[in-house]
């Protein structure tokens, strides 16, 4: 099952670092394809916010001559949201704690996005 | 003149790194307060996209339990857009080249945002 394989990639990603709290694969129209979220987070909300940020981020990148968008990172006082394109049709959204080492997270997330892209 | 002092902070910021291409201080409602942009970039466009990203980024941070938003980073194939809160009323938007060293840029931009916050 492809959904099981996506979930397996997300479980592995969440396991690479104690600072990764949640992850999900979302179609570019905002529907959840696979998710490993804590109970406190609603799948639909993560999907909707990811799709909205992706859409506006893409437009911003184009309007400001940054070309095709690869990633959006939001830093809040209580942690990070990192959205990464996984091919044309999906985005990998990851939530991390405020003390996360961004260099490591970027690396692990990039690898996971690559695996997801190959699968979809 | 406060506008001159803001422009001076931006000139200094753009001078810290050859990878910083442009910077601007924008009110939270999207109006430009000071800008050091290349001719190819329109002030109104930078202002509007910054305000829109800031608004959606804040909402995303809140909806996904990341608290108050500090920064949004967009990575495109042709470079970065980094938006940083400079106090309650303004945002510092910086455009950087794709080969920029993010750690250095984050540091310089944080300092500039602090100076802007104290000035406004």
From TrEMBL, chains A, B:
Residue ranges constituting the Roadblock/LAMTOR2 domain according to the UniProt record: 6-96
Protein name in the entry: Roadblock/LAMTOR2 domain-containing protein
Domain of life the protein comes from: Bacteria
A Pfam family hit: Robl_LC7
